[in-house]
Design the sequence.
C-alpha cells in the first residue's frame, strides 16, 4: 500500500513555492479593508501564514536532516519507527501510564483546565463514535452532531417532564439515537460515498431545525433549562443505621471523572468492536464493498449497524453534555460541530483509537491555549489543517491495520476472516 | 396585489435566487466531476470574488469612473473578480488538493475544509467582522410586469448568469479543452493514455469553476448591497445540494438543480409555514437521491449492485 | 548551519505569548462572541468595556488599583462560554461583562454564580437570565417584554395601525420579542395580526416572504431580526414596492443598518433606549471613535460601556471588591449611564422603557416616547 505521508523533495519545493504564491495572492484580501492599503493588518496576517508554513517546513527539514536520518529516520519511514517504538512497550503499560495521568490531572489543575479536560473528553467520545462510521465502515458522515443533539434532548425532556433520572434516560437516549441512526442510514445505503456527505449533512440540519421549530416540545430557540445533574447512590451510615445516600455529580471534578469513565468505556467498546468479526467486516466494506458482499458480508445490515453504534455513543455524550450544562439549545448543534468531530477522526487517523484521542486533545485544548491570539487562531488552524493533511494524509497516528499489506497477513488470519464473515452471515 | 401578479412575482424571485445557486453549483459540479472532491472552499472563493469586486468598485467610484463609463465598470469589476479568484482557485488546488490526489478521499475533504476555514477567517481578519456595504450601481428602480416588480439589477443579473451558463456549456461541448475536461471527468487513466494533459485540464477547471463562483459573488454583492466574510457558507450548502440534485458532474444538471432548489425555497416560503423552508430543501434532496441516486440528470454512478 | 538557521527561525515564529501579573488589580472579564456570526456585536461589547476603563481611569480611577480587561470568547455557544467563564474565574476577575447570546449567558452564569462573581449582561434579554434567583447577576438591556410593550404601545396609540405582520429569524432574542408582541396585541384586541413569518439568519434573500406579506397588505411589518438581515430586508421591501410601515428593534440599531440599507432604510422605526444628550455620552462617543477608529457605535457598545462603568463606580463607592457589598451597592443606587438612568430591581433587571426612533436623513432620530405619548 502506498505510504502517502512522505513527500518527495521536488514535490515539497513545489508545495512551498505555491504556498508562498498563495500568500501573495491573498494580499488584496488581507490588505485592503476599503480602498487604502493597511500594512499592519496585512503583515500580521502574513506573519501567521508564514508561521504555519514554517512549522510545516520545520517538520520536513527535520525529517530530511542528516542527524535525523541517522538516528530516527533510517531506511524506514518515521511512522513505522515510532509505531515500532510504541510496540516495544506492551500496550497495557502505556495505557496504564496514560490512565494514571488523566486520573491525576484534575487534582493538579484549576477549574478552567478541568473544564477544558471535560470538553476534550466529550469530543473524544464523539470522535470515537464517529470513528466507527467513518474510520471503520468508511461511510462519510457530515451530520453526526444530530445524534449528540438527540442524546441531549432526550435526557432534557425526560428529566424535565417526567423527572426521570440520568441513568434511566441514558439507555432510552442510546436506543433513540440508534433507531435514528438506522433511519438516517437506511435511505443512504444505495448512495455512494460523497452523496452520503450531503444527505447526512441534510439530516443533521433537519434535526437541528426540528428542535428549533418545534416550540411546544423543545421550547425552540429558548432552549431547555434546569435539568438535574446525574447522581449516584452509595451506602452510608447514619443515625438510623445503614442506608442509601445520594451524591450528586455537581462539581467539575466529579463530572470530569464521570466523563472519563464514559470515555474509557467507549475506548474499550470501540476497541472490542474493532477487533471483533463485525469490525473486520466493516473494514472489508470500507476497502471494497462489492468484494465484501461477494464474500458473504451482509453489507446492508452492517452499514446500518455502524450508523446505529456511532449514534449510540454520540447520544451518551449528548446526555452528559446536557446534564453538565443543565441547559441545552438547538444552536449548540450546528454543522460546524459535525465538521470538528470529523476533523478529530481524520486528523487523528481514520480507524485509529490513539489517533482520535490525540487529535481530540489537540483540536480542543490547543486552541484554548492560544486564546490570547483570539482571531488569528482559527485562521492558523484552517491553514494548519490543510498543511497537516498534505504532509500526513493518513493522520497523526495511522491505524495499524490499514498499513498491513497482504503479505503481512498470515494465512490463518485470512482463514479467520472468512470464518467470521460466514458467522456474521449466518446470523442474519 | 392579486393572485396572478403574486405568482409572477414569486416566479421572478425563484428565477433570480435559482440562477445564483446555479452559478455557484456549476463550480462544484465541475470540480467534483474532474477530481471527485467536494471543494469546501468554493463558498469562500465566492465570497472572495464579492470582496474583490467591492474593492475594485470602490476604487473606481472614488475616481468618478463609474458615472462616466458604466458598462466598462461592469466589465472591469466582473473581469477582475473572476480573474483573481480563478488564479486563487488554482493556487489552492496546488497547495491543498494536488498533493493529495492519490491519498484517501477523507484527507482531501479535510484539506478542503481547512482551506475553507483559512480563507473565511483570513477575510474576517482583513475585511472585518461586520457587513460591508456595496456601492449601489442599479438602485431600486425597476419595471412592472403584470403587477410584479423586477428591478434593473435583477434583470441584468439574470441575463448575465444565463449568458455565463450558455458560454460554459458551449466551451465544454465545443472546444478542445472542454472535450479534454469531459474526457478527464469520465476516465482519468484513459484520458491520460490518449495524450490529454491531465494537470492542465484540472488547472483549467479550477480557473473556470471558481471564476463562475466569483461572478455570482459580485452579483450577490451588487444586488443585495452587502457582503460579509461568512456569507459563502449558506450559499455553499445550497449550491452543493443543487449540484448533487442535478447529478454531480453534469452542467445542465447543476443549472436545473439550482433552479429547483431556488424554486422549492421560494414556493415553500410563499405558500407554507416559512420556518420549515430549509427542512424542505433537504427533504427534496433526500427524496430525489433516494429514488434516483445519481441525481436528476446525472449518469448512473451508484454502486453496482450484485 | 543553514538548516539550523531555519530551525531557529521556525521556533521563533512558533513561540507563544506569556501573560504578566500585577499586584493590586481590578480585573474585569468580558464574555462576548469574538468569533462566528455575532463577532461584530461581540467586538462592540469588548471595545465598549475597554473604552469605559480608559474613560474611568482618565477621570481618576480607583486609588491604588490598576484596572485590567480580560477578554473571553463565548462564541455564542454554551460549552465554550462555560469554559471561557471558568478561565476568567481562574484569572481572578472581580466582575464580568457578558455574555451576548442568552444561550451562552445562561450556562456561563452557573460557574460565575458558584464563584460569586458579579456578572452584568449588556445584551441577553431572555427572562431566565435573571429569573433563577442569582443575587450577583444584572441585566443592562431591557427585557423582551419591556421592549415589546413599547412597540405595541407605539403601534396602537402612535401609528394607530389596524393590521400587523411579524417576521422573526427563530432565534432566542427575536422569538422572545414576537411572542411578547403577539401576547400584548391579543390582550388589547386593537390590532389584528395577519401573519407570523420566519427567515433563516444568514440568508440574503427574503423576497419570497416579503411578497407573501405584500399580498396580505398589512399596515405595518415588524422585523424581529438582527442588523445584517434587517438592512437587506428593508432594501428588498422597497424594491418590491411594499408600502407598509416598517418597524424593528434595538438589534438593528447599528450604523451599519443605515450604511447598508441606504435610502431604503429611511423611515424605518426602531425601539431603542432613550439617549440623553449628556457630556458623559458625548465624551464616550468621542473616546470610542478615537480609540477604535470607528465611524459610529453599535447599540451594544453603549450597554457594555454602562455595564463596565457601573461595576467600576460601584467598586469605588463600596471601597472594596467584595462581591456581596458591590452587588448591594449596584442594586441600591441609581446610576447615570450613557443609555439613560440606571436602576436595577430585586431580580437585577433594569427599569428602562425604550423610546421609538426613526431613520431620517441617514441618522437615527428620536421620534416618540411611549411613556408620555409625546413626539420629540
Sequence:
Amino acid at each position: 500500500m502506498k505510504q502517502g505521508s512522505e513527500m518527495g523533495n521536488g514535490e515539497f519545493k513545489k508545495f512551498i513555492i505555491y504556498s508562498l504564491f498563495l500568500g501573495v495572492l491573498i494580499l488584496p484580501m488581507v490588505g485592503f479593508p476599503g480602498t487604502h492599503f493597511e500594512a499592519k493588518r496585512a503583515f500580521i496576517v502574513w506573519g501567521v501564514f508564514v508561521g504555519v508554513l514554517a512549522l510545516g517546513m520545520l517538520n520536513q527539514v527535520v525529517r530530511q536532516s542528516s542527524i535525523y536520518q541517522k538516528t530516527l529516520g533510517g531506511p524506514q519511514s518515521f511512522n513505522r519507527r515510532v509505531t515500532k517504538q510504541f510496540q516495544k512497550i506492551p500496550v497495557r503499560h502505556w495505557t496504564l501510564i496514560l490512565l494514571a495521568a488523566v486520573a491525576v490531572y484534575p487534582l493538579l489543575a484549576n477549574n478552567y483546565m478541568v473544564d477544558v479536560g471535560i470538553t476534550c473528553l466529550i469530543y473524544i467520545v464523539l470522535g470515537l463514535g464517529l470513528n466507527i462510521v467513518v474510520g471503520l465502515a468508511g461511510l462519510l458522515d457530515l451530520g453526526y452532531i444530530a445524534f449528540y443533539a438527540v442524546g441531549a434532548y432526550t435526557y432534557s425532556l425526560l428529566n424535565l417532564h417526567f423527572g426521570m433520572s440520568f441513568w434511566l434516560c441514558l439507555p432510552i437516549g442510546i436506543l433513540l439515537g440508534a433507531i435514528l441512526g438506522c433511519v438516517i442510514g437506511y435511505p443512504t445505503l444505495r448512495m455512494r460515498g460523497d452523496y452520503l456527505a450531503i444527505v447526512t449533512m441534510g439530516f443533521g440540519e433537519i434535526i437541528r431545525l426540528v428542535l428549533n421549530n418545534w416550540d411546544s416540545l423543545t421550547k425552540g430557540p429558548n432552549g431547555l433549562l434546569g435539568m438535574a445533574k446525574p447522581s449516584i447512590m452509595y451506602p452510608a451510615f447514619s443515625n438510623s443505621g445503614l442506608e442509601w445516600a445520594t451524591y450528586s455529580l455537581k462539581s467539575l471534578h466529579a463530572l470530569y471523572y464521570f466523563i472519563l469513565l464514559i470515555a474509557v468505556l467507549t475506548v474499550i467498546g470501540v476497541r472490542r468492536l474493532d477487533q471483533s468479526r463485525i469490525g473486520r467486516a466493516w473494514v472489508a466494506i470500507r476497502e471494497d464493498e462489492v468484494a465484501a458482499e461477494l464474500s458473504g458480508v451482509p453489507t446492508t445490515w452492517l452499514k446500518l449497524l455502524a450508523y446505529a453504534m456511532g449514534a449510540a455513543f454520540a447520544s451518551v455524550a449528548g446526555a452528559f453534555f446536557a446534564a453538565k450544562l443543565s441547559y441545552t439549545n438547538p444552536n449548540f448543534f450546528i454543522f460546524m460541530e459535525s465538521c470538528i468531530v470529523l476533523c478529530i477522526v481524520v486528523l487523528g487517523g481514520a480507524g485509529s483509537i490513539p489517533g482520535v484521542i490525540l487529535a481530540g486533545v489537540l483540536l480542543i485544548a490547543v486552541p484554548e491555549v492560544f486564546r490570547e491570539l483570539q482571531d488569528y487562531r482559527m485562521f492558523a488552524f484552517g491553514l494548519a489543517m490543510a498543511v497537516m493533511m498534505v504532509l500526513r494524509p493518513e493522520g497523526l497516528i495511522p491505524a495499524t491495520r490499514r498499513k498491513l499489506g497482504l503479505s503481512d497477513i498470515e494465512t490463518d488470519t485470512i482463514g479467520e476472516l472468512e470464518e467470521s464473515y460466514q458467522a456474521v452471515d449466518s446470523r442474519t | 396585489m392579486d393572485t396572478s401578479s403574486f405568482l409572477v412575482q414569486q416566479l421572478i424571485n425563484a428565477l433570480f435566487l435559482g440562477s445564483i445557486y446555479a452559478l455557484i453549483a456549476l463550480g462544484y459540479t465541475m470540480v467534483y466531476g474532474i477530481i471527485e472532491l467536494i471543494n469546501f472552499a468554493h463558498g469562500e472563493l465566492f465570497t472572495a470574488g464579492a470582496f474583490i469586486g467591492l474593492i475594485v468598485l470602490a476604487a473606481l467610484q472614488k475616481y468618478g469612473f463609474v458615472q462616466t463609463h458604466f458598462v466598462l465598470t461592469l466589465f472591469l469589476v466582473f473581469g477582475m473578480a473572476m480573474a483573481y479568484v480563478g488564479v486563487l482557485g488554482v493556487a489552492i488546488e496546488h497547495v491543498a488538493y494536488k498533493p493529495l490526489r492519490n491519498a484517501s478521499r477523507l484527507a482531501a475533504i479535510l484539506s478542503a475544509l481547512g482551506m475553507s476555514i483559512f480563507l473565511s477567517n483570513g477575510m474576517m481578519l482583513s475585511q472585518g467582522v461586520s457587513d460591508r456595504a456595496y456601492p449601489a450601481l442599479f438602485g431600486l428602480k425597476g419595471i412592472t410586469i403584470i403587477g410584479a416588480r423586477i428591478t434593473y439589477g435583477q434583470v441584468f443579473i439574470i441575463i448575465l448568469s444565463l449568458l455565463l451558463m450558455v458560454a460554459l456549456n458551449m466551451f465544454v461541448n465545443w472546444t478542445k479543452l472542454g472535450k479534454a475536461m469531459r474526457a478527464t471527468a469520465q476516465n482519468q487513466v484513459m484520458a491520460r493514455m490518449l495524450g490529454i494533459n491531465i494537470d492542465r485540464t484540472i488547472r483549467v477547471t479550477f480557473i473556470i469553476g471558481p471564476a463562475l463562483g466569483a461572478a455570482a459573488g459580485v452579483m450577490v454583492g451588487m444586488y443585495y448591497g452587502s457582503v460579509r466574510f461568512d456569507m459563502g457558507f449558506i450559499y455553499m450548502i445550497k449550491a452543493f445540494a443543487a449540484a448533487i440534485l442535478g447529478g454531480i458532474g453534469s452542467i445542465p444538471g447543476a443549472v436545473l438543480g439550482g433552479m429547483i432548489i431556488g424554486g422549492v425555497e421560494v414556493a415553500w416560503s410563499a405558500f407554507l409555514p416559512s420556518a420549515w423552508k430549509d427542512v424542505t430543501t433537504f427533504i427534496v434532496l433526500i427524496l430525489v437521491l433516494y429514488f434516483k441516486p445519481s441525481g436528476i440528470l446525472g449518469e448512473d454512478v451508484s454502486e453496482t449492485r450484485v | 548551519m543553514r538548516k539550523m538557521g531555519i530551525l531557529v527561525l521556525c521556533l521563533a515564529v512558533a513561540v507563544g505569548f506569556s501573560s504578566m501579573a500585577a499586584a493590586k488589580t481590578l480585573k474585569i472579564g468580558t464574555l462576548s462572541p469574538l468569533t462566528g456570526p455575532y463577532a461584530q456585536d461581540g467586538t462592540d461589547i469588548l471595545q465598549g468595556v475597554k473604552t469605559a476603563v480608559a474613560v474611568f481611569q482618565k477621570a481618576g480611577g480607583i486609588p491604588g488599583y490598576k484596572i485590567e480587561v480580560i477578554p473571553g470568547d463565548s462564541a455564542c455557544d454554551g460549552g465554550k462560554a462555560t469554559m471561557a467563564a471558568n478561565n476568567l474565574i481562574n484569572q481572578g476577575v472581580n466582575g464580568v461583562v457578558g455574555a451576548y447570546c442568552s444561550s451562552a449567558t445562561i450556562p456561563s452564569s452557573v460557574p460565575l454564580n458558584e464563584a460569586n462573581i458579579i456578572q452584568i449582561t449588556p445584551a441577553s434579554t431572555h427572562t431566565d437570565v435573571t429569573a433563577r434567583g442569582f443575587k450577583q447577576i444584572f441585566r443592562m438591556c431591557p427585557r423582551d417584554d419591556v421592549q415589546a410593550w413599547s412597540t405595541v404601545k407605539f403601534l396602537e396609540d402612535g401609528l394607530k395601525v389596524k393590521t400587523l405582520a411579524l417576521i422573526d429569524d427563530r432565534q432566542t432574542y427575536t422569538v422572545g420579542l414576537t411572542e411578547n408582541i403577539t401576547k400584548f396585541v391579543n390582550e388589547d384586541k386593537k390590532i389584528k395580526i395577519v401573519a407570523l413569518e420566519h427567515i433563516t439568519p444568514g440568508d440574503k434573500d427574503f423576497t419570497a416572504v416579503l411578497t407573501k406579506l405584500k399580498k396580505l397588505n398589512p399596515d405595518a411589518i415588524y422585523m424581529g431580526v438582527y442588523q445584517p438581515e434587517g438592512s437587506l430586508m428593508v432594501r428588498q421591501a422597497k424594491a418590491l414596492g411594499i408600502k407598509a410601515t416598517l418597524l424593528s428593534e434595538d438589534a438593528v440599531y447599528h450604523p451599519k443598518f443605515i450604511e447598508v440599507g441606504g435610502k431604503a432604510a429611511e423611515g424605518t422605526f426602531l425601539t431603542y433606549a432613550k439617549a440623553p444628550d449628556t457630556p458623559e455620552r458625548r465624551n464616550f462617543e468621542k473616546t470610542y471613535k478615537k480609540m477604535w477608529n470607528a465611524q459610529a457605535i453599535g447599540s451594544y457598545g453603549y450597554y457594555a460601556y454602562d455595564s463596565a462603568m457601573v461595576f467600576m463606580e460601584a467598586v469605588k463607592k463600596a471601597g472594596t471588591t467584595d462581591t456581596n457589598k458591590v452587588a448591594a451597592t449596584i442594586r441600591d443606587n441609581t446610576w447615570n449611564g450613557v443609555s439613560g438612568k440606571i436602576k436595577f430591581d430585586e431580580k437585577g433587571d433594569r427599569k428602562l422603557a425604550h423610546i421609538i426612533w426613526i431613520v431620517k436623513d441617514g441618522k437615527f432620530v428620536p421620534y416618540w416616547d411611549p411613556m408620555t405619548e409625546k413626539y420629540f
About this structure: Chain A touches chain C through 44 residues (CB under 8 Å). The first helix of chain A runs from residue 9 to 25.
